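Postdoc handover notes: sequence design on the structure in folder B. Input tokens:
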């Protein structure tokens, strides 16, 4: 009898255990099935997916655009969803990717076609596509950048620019005014920069940049980068700083442009594919595939030396820089010929010293953009103080000379009066 009771207990226990296992298996199978259904629906409905991005403010979302965080590993089960993030939402043209509150307008293909005179007013060509000059219906002159057909990389860069410049606004960043996703075309509408790129101004023999212009351009660029690194929330790394991506407006104010490769700063150990322009890329980034703010600093250092020497990085600029670094006044020997005798050599040396720090082999030992901006501003401020002092001294000298002349006239008058009295 005892044995039968034990057998009953064992059977009941095994039955309960099997029941629990079957229930768990059923529960997880149901969850997996529901998740699979959601993924399939997401793939079939491009408009249902969005590209979330953090915006400035205390209530900022913690989600980040997939195109801005490609360095983060995504599991194989999410590949379908990631693909939808990259391309699906642009095919759903009835849904704007940018909030109306951002101030960025959405244009139709016909509006852009009319403004560019049927895409005949070409300004230039780039890796992204063709850039046109356009006059909008309001009379405003703008630049339109059209994505080259079948450009997957350009598609990602297009998304990045719209998302980033939709929330980044600074006087030293080129302003994105609008975009167009219509008739299979992708276009970006920017403010028109009438003086073109810094690269064209430096390497065009017909152009002439004074030392004052170059120093102010360095100040403007530093302010633009400082906003990206220290003012934007979250911080943004440009990743493709070069003289061709620095544009100048009608008043020669420099602005940072082309944010197609930019990304939000992400604190992780993942590596990203090498992207950028040869000659401006940080050697530490090339060796480690890790891009940081200090990589932007390196690129800015190269641009500063371009301002001083007008030697392009593809023309062995680094060799000239290394030779100049051997002497205190070594930079004097590689100053652009147009500046010889027309610039303050002490200012040039101080700016070159800042640029040398930007190019330090160890990224950690490079200065922050805030320190660089402050250093360049001090160069300008010292000159202004010196000019004010000289102006004050010159003014005092003029007043003293005027007083002496007045006194001489007065003495002459007195002498004449006394001579007349003696004659009487």
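Designed sequence:
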């Amino acid at each position: 009898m005892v044995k039968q009771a034990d057998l009953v207990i064992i059977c009941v226990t095994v039955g309960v255990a099997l029941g629990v296992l079957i229930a768990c298996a059923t529960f997880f199978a149901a969850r997996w099935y529901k998740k699979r259904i959601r993924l399939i629906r997401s793939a079939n409905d491009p408009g249902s997916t969005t590209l979330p991005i953090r915006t400035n403010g205390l209530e900022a979302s913690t989600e980040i655009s997939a195109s801005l965080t490609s360095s983060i590993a995504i599991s194989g089960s999410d590949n379908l969803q990631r693909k939808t993030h990259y391309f699906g939402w642009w095919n759903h043209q009835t849904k704007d990717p940018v909030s109306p509150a951002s101030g960025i307008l959405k244009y139709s293909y016909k509006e852009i076609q009319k403004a560019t005179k049927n895409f005949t007013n070409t300004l230039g060509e780039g890796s992204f596509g063709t850039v046109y000059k356009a006059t909008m219906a309001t009379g405003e002159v703008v630049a339109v950048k059209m994505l080259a057909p079948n450009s997957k990389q350009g598609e990602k860069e297009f998304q990045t620019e719209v998302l980033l410049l939709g929330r980044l606004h600074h006087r030293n960043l080129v302003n994105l005014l609008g975009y167009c996703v219509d008739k299979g075309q992708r276009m970006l509408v920017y403010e028109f920069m009438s003086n073109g790129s810094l690269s064209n101004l430096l390497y065009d023999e017909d152009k002439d940049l004074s030392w004052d212009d170059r120093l102010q351009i360095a100040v403007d660029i530093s302010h633009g980068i400082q906003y990206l690194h220290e003012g934007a929330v979250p911080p943004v790394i440009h990743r493709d700083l070069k003289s061709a991506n620095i544009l100048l407006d009608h008043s020669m104010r420099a602005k940072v442009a082309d944010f197609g490769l930019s990304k939000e700063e992400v604190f992780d150990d993942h590596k990203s594919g090498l992207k950028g322009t040869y000659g401006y890329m940080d050697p530490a980034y090339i060796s480690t595939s890790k891009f940081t703010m200090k990589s932007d600093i390196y690129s800015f250092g190269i641009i500063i030396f371009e301002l001083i020497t007008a030697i392009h990085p593809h023309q062995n600029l680094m060799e000239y820089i290394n030779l100049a670094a051997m002497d205190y006044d070594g930079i004097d020997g590689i100053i652009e010929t147009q500046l010889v005798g027309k610039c303050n050599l002490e200012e040039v040396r101080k700016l070159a010293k800042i640029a040398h720090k930007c190019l330090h082999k160890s990224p950690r030992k490079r200065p922050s953009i805030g320190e660089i901006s402050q250093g360049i501003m001090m160069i300008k401020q010292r000159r202004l103080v010196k000019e004010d002092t000289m102006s004050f001294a010159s003014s005092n000298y003029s007043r003293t000379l005027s007083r002496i002349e007045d006194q001489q006239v007065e003495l002459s008058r007195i002498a004449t009066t006394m001579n007349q009295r003696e004659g009487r």
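Context for whoever picks this up: The CA atoms of residues 317 and 377 lie 25 Å apart. Don't rerun without checking with the PI first.
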